[in-house]
Design goal:
- The protein is 61% helix and 4% strand.
- The N and C termini lie far apart (99 Å).
- By secondary structure, the protein is mainly α.
- It has a domain at 3-103.
- It has a two-stranded antiparallel sheet with strand order 1-2.
- Helix 1 packs across helix 2 and helix 4 (66-75) runs antiparallel to helix 5.
């Protein structure tokens, strides 16, 4: 997430947020936060992601990973920032749970697909046997009822 967006979520201005980050750079290794390049910002502007560099406060923005967002919550002290950091953590936990559940399902489907490819003739035999069990061929039945005898 970009610093400007996080500032809005935390209820602070983007400039003081960036100042706090600069004062605490040792808390933000490269995998927690990085600053966008001029070329990256120009691409965002050209693709109408943002209207202009001025929209970002006139400076190159910082982008934060999940861990960077959590660290940012530790250096901002407003009540709104604390509440928002708790909410953001809850959202990340839910996202991770959803991704994990879908990942497990996809892995199982891939496994079944591989097995089906390797054993397609066996699977066809199983389906054939199941169809036979569900709808077996029956010999013709004798008619039930009163039989007349012709003399």
């Amino acid at each position: 997430m970009l610093d400007r967006d996080l500032a809005g979520l935390y209820g602070v201005q983007a400039k003081p947020l960036r100042q706090q980050v600069k004062r605490n750079l040792n808390r933000f290794p490269q995998n927690f936060m990085f600053q966008l390049t001029k070329e990256e910002v120009e691409i965002m502007v050209s693709q109408n992601v943002i209207p202009s560099l001025q929209h970002l406060g006139g400076t190159l923005p910082y982008a934060f990973s999940e861990h960077g967002i959590l660290m940012l919550a530790n250096i901002l002290k407003s009540d709104e920032a604390i509440q928002m950091s708790v909410r953001i953590i809850e959202i990340f936990v839910k996202m991770r749970e959803l991704l994990s559940a879908h990942k497990d399902i996809l892995l199982q489907l891939e496994k079944l697909e591989k097995q089906a490819g390797e054993n397609s003739s066996d699977i066809q035999k199983i389906f054939s046997a199941l169809r036979t069990l569900l709808d077996p061929e029956r010999p013709p039945m004798e008619k039930v009822g009163y039989k007349s005898s012709k003399v």
